[in-house]
Amino acid sequence: MQKLFGTIFLILILMSLWAWRLQPPPDGKLVWVSDDNPRRTEQIALFNKEQAAGLLNVPGIPPHPPTGLKLDPSNVGLEKVIVQSLGGVGPDIFDCGDYKSLSAYVRSGIALDITDALKARGVSLDSVWDCVKPFCVYNGRVYGWPSNAAVNALWLNQDMFEKEGIPLPAKRPWTWEEFIPLAQRLTKRDAAGHVTQYGFLADWFFLWPICLYQWGGHIYTPDGTRCIIDSPEAIAGIQFAHDLIYKYHIMPSPFEEAALSGQGGWGQGNIKWFGAGKGATAIGGRWWLCTLRDQTHPMQNGKPLPPTLRLRVVECPHGPLRVFQGYGRCALINATSPRAQEALDFIVFMTRKPYNDLINAQADANAAVKKYCDTPEFLHDPKYPEEQDNDVWRDIMKLGVPEEVSPFVDGQAVQRILDVQLDLVKSNQKSPADALHTAAQKINAEIQKMLAQDPVLRRQYEALTRKSSGK
Known about the structure:
Distance between the termini: 40 Å
Oligomer: single chain
CATH class of the largest domain: Alpha Beta
Largest sheet: 6 strands, mixed
Radius of gyration: 23 Å
Strand content: 5-15%
């Protein structure tokens, strides 16, 4: 089996090298592998302008000629980045969206350790939101800088509330017990009993972690030595997420989601369904505006049109605990790039006010540097006066908790296990208790598998377990 994987890996490297040979000669610009969000164009233009003007030079560090930056959206993906980088044809900069990907990049030798480089440039991760720091730090060393940051809030379709004569929820903390009757009133069915409008939409991969943490559950023990996702608190949280579909009937089941996808028009996904008027409320991030502004602020030939969607935002409901999961994107530098030092300009760029102000203005989630989410320009953007709730996005960031991680297990393996078991819960094929017991057993087995392969991790693990047992 190992020979098979080795052969496949070699073939992938050879294919990447061959593809590289077919590319036109390089133009000297730094290459950034990221998604093809149209906002990247303006972000790259700003970087190129600041670098050319020498604004990214740091006193005490010899400057270099401007390189410029260009986007490569065709090679997004962990496997592509690793294979191409090991083959010597990888990008200079690439995105990372979670700790499990970061650990894979670091362990493969692809991510550049920038701990000392940040210190030399006088910047620190202390300035960014806590919930995105784990995407940048591995075993106490810094490997990246957050491009943006997000904590989900609750989107409201103002027209649907007004049609039912229901006042919009106030901007205050509120509970699921308060929310559920409201969402039930906003769930509409036709004469045959089919739902025509859901009171609540939520991506399952966003919903279950919220419920897990709000009910006091955790994935790991604080030292990361054991998976405890089958605790009574965790089971109660996932049971509640399940109940929103099958007990309270305020959000679609997988079968009903498939029916929504088959209706055409806006296509698949809760951001699309919410924009198409299929739900009165929805859990989502501020980055949804990258799509929804086409409806809230439509333009034609450079002239504004009446909005087809009016939105408001409030804090998500909470359970026994008032906590929410944070997330975001992080930029890493390729350790194998011959221009890794030049790529540090991009890190400096993301720490500065112009970039963070641009992220906020574009609604590409929130600026990762905290202080730039507390400016008059962020709270009241004159270009979008109808967006009255930016204070909600700022305040909820303070309640965001980071992704739970363990240094003793392969994050990719953990994600596969959780995806399988939690999807069985969502589809009502397995009880939360059974699914989480299975997940915990499999993840703990993966921990032992990792320890058997890494003597250094084994020693760290044994030191922690002896300490926790008092020995």
